[in-house]
Design brief:
This protein is mainly alpha-helical. The protein is built from three helices and no strands.
Length: about 80
């Protein structure tokens, strides 16, 4: 068995995290897991100097954060009016 380097483990962890996130029914959990997977992919892409991987995943991570902020703000507004 070959030695697996830490950067490779990071890439596999990112892949697993994104795959698991896409199986979630709860949109908030999906967004959080997908964000973490994207963050891992950004670190992975940066460490292997794969700028398209890092850039695209940074963009998707920002989209996830945008939607999470929107969801939490809507919940906060609904709680205030209830």
């Amino acid at each position: 068995m070959e030695n697996i380097d830490l950067i490779e483990v990071l890439g596999y962890a990112a892949s697993v995290m994104v795959a698991i996130s896409l199986m979630m029914k709860d949109i908030i959990l999906l967004r959080w897991l997908n964000f973490l997977g994207c963050a891992f992919f950004v670190a992975y892409g940066y460490s292997i100097e794969a700028w398209p991987v890092a850039g695209m995943n940074a963009f998707v991570a920002c989209i996830n954060i945008y939607h999470l902020v929107k969801i939490y703000r809507n919940r906060s507004l609904q709680a205030q009016t209830a």
